[in-house]
Amino acid sequence: MITALGSRLSMPVPDMIALIANWDSLAEEARAATGNDHAVGDVELLAPVQRPGKIFGLGMNYADHVAEAAMPMPEDQIWFTKAVTSVNGPHAPVELPKASALLDYEAELVFIIGKRCRHVSADQAAGVIFGYCAGNDFSVRDWQLKTSQYVLGKSFDTHAPFGPWIVTPDEIDPAALPIRSTVNGEVRQSSNTRHFIFDPAAQIAHLSQAMTLEPGDVIFTGTPGGVGAAMKPPSFLKAGDIVRVEIDGIGAIENRVVNEAG
Q1: Is the pLDDT of residue 34 over 90?
Q2: Is-above-0.85 flag for pTM?
Q3: Are 79 and 210 within 8 A, CB to CB?
Q4: What is the torsional sign of CA 141, 237, 100, 96?
Q5: Which band of pLDDT confidence, cut at 50, 70 and 90, is reported for residue 227?
Q6: Computed over its alpha carbons, how large is the radius of gyration of the chain?
Q7: In the predicted model, what is the mean pLDDT of residues 173-200?
């Protein structure tokens, strides 16, 4: 069941970013809120943060994915951005774009920044994470790889679904989460976040040297091996395919691929 949280808080909270930014004041009220207002099956779950200020993704962050891409182990973190307009719901359709047929999936742990911060040490980083989601960093491979900059290939509309909700850090251990993806029920990726090359603390410490991180910013933490582009022969997604990402302790998102609308 789902509780209509906004009506049970002592201050106006127009959106998720406002809730995150005021979490220190509202956490106790939010956790005490009760009332079964809607059955989960009766509502459409949207992306937990509809309009994040920033979306960043980390490339080559699992050793098995580095190996399948035939790339050297990264000494530095490889970051790219995804356009805010790529945000999509956890069960919403994902578009096969008119511009390319090389659409691929990437199962990822996603975390949401909870506090405005800069120059955060790795030891401090856990304190600025609001929570975790499952995500899929859909990628248009020819657009991604035709230049040294990944941004366009990662930024097509609908290509950043995440959710199905935000799980707060007290509920899970992000360093030991099994993660899987399936396409039409076939397991394609199966790994564990303990195989990160750079964990979320290292990611925050690195990013926050360059920029201020703000409540609601969304970070995709990298994908394990098993992507379609690395299969022999490569296997890209087509209209009608159903792609599911599951992370133990968080839940699952599932998206059907559809042709881009006219």
Answers
A1: no
A2: yes
A3: no
A4: negative
A5: very high
A6: 18
A7: 97
Q: What is the pLDDT of residues 230-251, one digit of tens each?
A: 999 999 999 999 999 999 999 9
166/162 Cα distance (integer angstroms): 9
What is the torsional sign of CA 125, 208, 196, 230?
Answer: positive
Query: SS in 3 state form for 75-96?
Result: CCCEEEECCHHHEECCCCCEEE
Token duo for residue 189: 């990726």
DSSP label of 218: E
Q: Is 219 within 8 Å of 130 (Cβ atoms)?
A: no
Q: What is the DSSP string of 87-126?
A: EE-TTS-EEE-TT-S-EE--EEEEEEE-S-BSS--TTTGG
Domain boundary assignment for the chain: 1-43, 45-259
Interval 50-78: pLDDT, tens: 999 999 999 999 998 998 888 899 999 99
The per-residue pLDDT for 143 is 98
**Residue with structure tokens 């990662």?**
154
Fold topology of 45-259:
Fumarylacetoacetate hydrolase; domain 2 (3.90.850)
Q: Which residues contact 73 (CB under 8 A, 6 or more apart)?
A: 63, 66, 197
3 state DSSP class of 56: strand
Q: Tokens representing 95?
A: 């578009």
